[in-house]
Amino acid sequence: MGGEAYWYTVPYNEDLEMVLADLREREFRAGRYNPAMPFIAFPITPASPAPGPRHDSIEDALAASGADGTRSILDIHMIGDEPESFTAGPLPPEILRGLYGTDRPTRAAVEADDSFTEEIERGTAAYVLLYEGDTPTEVYFAGCSFD
């Protein structure tokens, strides 16, 4: 079985560790993770199902998900310098410039061409800061589950 892609767009804050922690907590509280929801429909919207957590903590959910992982941002534990196991890293500027002609893409540009997500390794995630003019306004996280 192949990995499952997932992606989220959340408000920007310069503390990306906090942004990731808040997103993980939001998705845990919503119950949008395997095994509470074996397969999640993306993109997440206000109308997306949110059955609530089926475990006492994110750690319990991770343990219950087994080799498949949670198929969600819960599998990503930290922000790093590059995408690697359990880690979200920035998409390199040269890839951003190649795809969008800038290293400060807008949300519309990334939503129109998210082809970089096809290169994300299982169990990792990449993030892109989304801009309005010269101001970062959102963070786009994209990842691939373990299985």
Euclidean distance between termini CA atoms = 6 Å
Overall average pLDDT: 95
| Number of separate structural domains | 1
Radius of gyration: 15 Å
Low-confidence stretches: none
Strand content: 15-25%
The SSE string, one letter per element, is: EHHEEHHEE
Question: Could you say which structural class the secondary elements and strand pairing correspond to?
Answer: alpha/beta
Number of strands: 5
Kindly state the percentage of residues in helix.
Answer: 25-40%
Globally, the shape reads globular
Largest sheet: 5 strands, mixed
Q: Give the neighbour order of strands across the main sheet.
A: 1-5-4-3-2
Helical stretch count? 4
Please tell me about this protein's structure.
There is one protein chain. With 147 residues, this protein is an alpha/beta fold. The protein has one domain. Helix content is 25%, strand content 22%. The chain has 4 helices and 5 strands; from the N terminus they run βααββααββ. It has helices at 16-30, 58-65, 93-100, 107-112, and strands at residues 5-11, 78-79, 87-90, 124-132, 135-144. A 5-stranded mixed beta sheet has the order 1-5-4-3-2, covered by helices on one side. A hairpin with a 2-residue loop joins β4 (124-132) and β5. The protein is globular. The N and C termini lie close together (6 Å).
List the helices and strands and how they pair.
Elements: E1 5-11, H1 16-30, H2 58-65, E2 78-79, E3 87-90, H3 93-100, H4 107-112, E4 124-132, E5 135-144
Parallel strand pairs: 2-3, 3-4
Antiparallel strand pairs: 1-5, 4-5
